[in-house]
Here is the input.
Amino acid sequence: MQNYPKDNFGPEYIVRVYDPKIGMEGFLVIDNTVLGPGKGGVRMTSTVTEDEVYRLARVMTWKTAIMDIPFGGAKAGIVWEGGSLEKKKEYIQSFARAIAHFTPEKYITAPDINTGELEMQWFVEATGDWRSATGKPSNYCLKFMGIDTKKCGIPHEAGSTGLGVAESARVAANFKGIDIKGATVAIHGFGNVGSFAYKFLQKMGAKVVSVADSSGAIFDENGLDHNELVDISMDPKKHIKDYPDASAKISGEKFWEVDVDILIPASTTDVINESNKDKVNAKIIIEGGNIPMSEAIEDELFKKGVLIVPDFVANGGGVVSSYAEYKGYTQTRAFELLEEKIKKTTELVVTMSLKENKNPREVGMDIAKERIEAGKRGGITIETKEIEIVAT
Here is the structure.
């Protein structure tokens, strides 16, 4: 049993699940539901821990509050060593049935590492409630109020988080007096977030000159080949190392030295660290991935004049899209709401940061906390409940 720091924001529930028949072990942390049901995806990795889930749930508490949508913060994880689709479905549905009591009033799940639209459909089928998950397939619908009206899924594979990152970059660039059309961009990570951020930025007219992932890095001062990058993003077997122009290939260390207007870390935690922080050569950093650097390094870069849009602002597009799906909006309306929320939030945080000369993360956290405090009624005190469930 973990000894979590508990404060006036949470966590509200720590749930441990175990299914002895199939060996499934999972965790659910519902951090805060003052503004609405806890929102946060379920990840399936061999190394996921209760502590990791707890930390991510707290990030979701800030993210939903700063985006000003009626959700709270939560996160889930299932220990997954790999296996067949049939086994994966068993794990997902066993976990879903075990925590169904919490959905959707206290918890609504979504895709995360190793889970996508198919897993969300499995989850909903197990709980029996269409609203218990977002990020479902677009053809997985719930009919209501007659035959002709229905709510359908909005899969994360549609690129909502990447769109939000691109929109945040456009707003931040404007504050620096940089026209997004022609702005130079480097992206670290080319998964769902990085590849869609690339596609939307390219549509805006930005010039992406460098991209890196775990397989390698590429750079071309004239802009990388759009068709080749799209081809890589569409083929799950391809990676940046497969970019055909050998002259564009650079080392992973050289990537951080590339002189660009906008840097988007959209890969792993702490990807900007003590070994490369002094090499970063960008005017703006848009944090597409969660916790791409420590707060101490953020402070260092901010004091050097780098404008940083923190993760829970820049990558909030996914949770806005989740809210839109929960409400039954179309994908078109969801993306309109997403752009509106990301633009408004980025403008608010950056304006206050520049006005008060405070790190944007600190500004955003203050806003999120104020909104949660304002949402409390009758001086609510959070009491952590720890629950263990053995699936039957």
Remarks:
- The mean pLDDT is 93.
- The longest strand covers residues 24-32.
